[in-house]
Amino acid sequence: MQQLVDPDTFTSCMKQHNDTVICNLDQHAVGALLPVPEEEKTWKNVVKLPPAYVTSVVVAFRLVHNNMPYPFDATAAPGYVYHCHILDHEDNAMIRPLKMLP
């Protein structure tokens, strides 16, 4: 997790454009790195994200009962979405498309 520098400017731009490229995410994600707490280093379906940080998430999509890959192509359209469980955030682009790559 990396802290955003000047998060208010970045947030304002995202509210207007909803595009990390236009809003220069790389210029804002230059702050302090936050280590992942040991209790968070495990497989689960919910991730704690601190405000004003850029977070990378490693995901394994496998069947729970036998740990085997899905019997279908998860990279095929229409795809999936990821979302925030804070209802107010859904109005602020916290529900987004997720493109699976092989």
From TrEMBL:
<dbReference type="GO" id="GO:0016036">
    <property type="term" value="P:cellular response to phosphate starvation"/>
</dbReference>
<feature type="domain" description="Plastocyanin-like">
    <location>
        <begin position="39"/>
        <end position="98"/>
    </location>
</feature>
<dbReference type="Pfam" id="PF07731">
    <property type="entry name" value="Cu-oxidase_2"/>
</dbReference>
<comment type="function">
    <text>Multicopper oxidase that may play a role in the maintenance of inorganic phosphate homeostasis.</text>
</comment>
<keyword id="KW-0560">Oxidoreductase</keyword>
<keyword id="KW-0472">Membrane</keyword>
<dbReference type="InterPro" id="IPR011706">
    <property type="entry name" value="Cu-oxidase_C"/>
</dbReference>
<dbReference type="InterPro" id="IPR008972">
    <property type="entry name" value="Cupredoxin"/>
</dbReference>
<dbReference type="GO" id="GO:0005507">
    <property type="term" value="F:copper ion binding"/>
</dbReference>
<protein>
    <recommendedName>
        <fullName>Plastocyanin-like domain-containing protein</fullName>
    </recommendedName>
</protein>
<keyword id="KW-0479">Metal-binding</keyword>
<keyword id="KW-0256">Endoplasmic reticulum</keyword>
<dbReference type="GO" id="GO:0005789">
    <property type="term" value="C:endoplasmic reticulum membrane"/>
</dbReference>
<keyword id="KW-0186">Copper</keyword>
<dbReference type="InterPro" id="IPR002355">
    <property type="entry name" value="Cu_oxidase_Cu_BS"/>
</dbReference>
<comment type="similarity">
    <text>Belongs to the multicopper oxidase family.</text>
</comment>
<dbReference type="InterPro" id="IPR052152">
    <property type="entry name" value="LPR1/LPR2"/>
</dbReference>
<keyword id="KW-0325">Glycoprotein</keyword>
<dbReference type="GO" id="GO:0016491">
    <property type="term" value="F:oxidoreductase activity"/>
</dbReference>
<keyword id="KW-0732">Signal</keyword>
